[in-house]
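Sequence only, no structure available. Ideas?
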Amino acid sequence: MKKLRRLQLISITVACLLIFGSIPSLASDIGASEQTYRIADYYNEDGSFSALGLGLEEIDYARMLTVEEGDTVIAGDRQFLVLAETYSFSFYTQSSLTRVIEWATEYLESLEESGVVSEIEDTVVYPIGAEATAYVTKLNGNKNDLYIIVTEYFSDGSTNEIKVMFKINNNAADIYELGDYFVYVDTKGNTQIRACYIVK
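Reply:
I predicted one. Tokens follow.
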């Protein structure tokens, strides 16, 4: 009797697998791709496509991004895990980057309802701006120490400071590299700063 019952359970299990297929586990099966896509990277501040956005597949007036299971799509400070095997997002120009984020968030929320994506609860911290400042320390002769500081601002209110010292001549004007930033600084006289701004 026990042997017959065990055979019946095995038969039911096999039948379920044949009908429905295996049920994927978020812990083990999802993550074959695991790429991260930030919606804001594809747009300029005015809502037009950035260089990265222009690089997407073009369909009529839209741009198309295809994501895979395990990828993450970020809109503003919210992130969504892709559950579908593959899915193509259509991008359109908007009136501003703020409107882009609003549209993308609403779109991803609708996809969550249909099971295409699932929101990840952790809030995303992303950069919202950066500015450069500089000052000069006078040395003997015609050489000076130029200090450039780039302050990065993030969505959670935090900041990060990058500070680098460069040896320069009097009245030097040049572009200096600080990590991912390029800063133009124009000095005058001994310690005056005529101009200082991020160029990239």
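The radius of gyration is 27 Å.
Hope that gets you unstuck.
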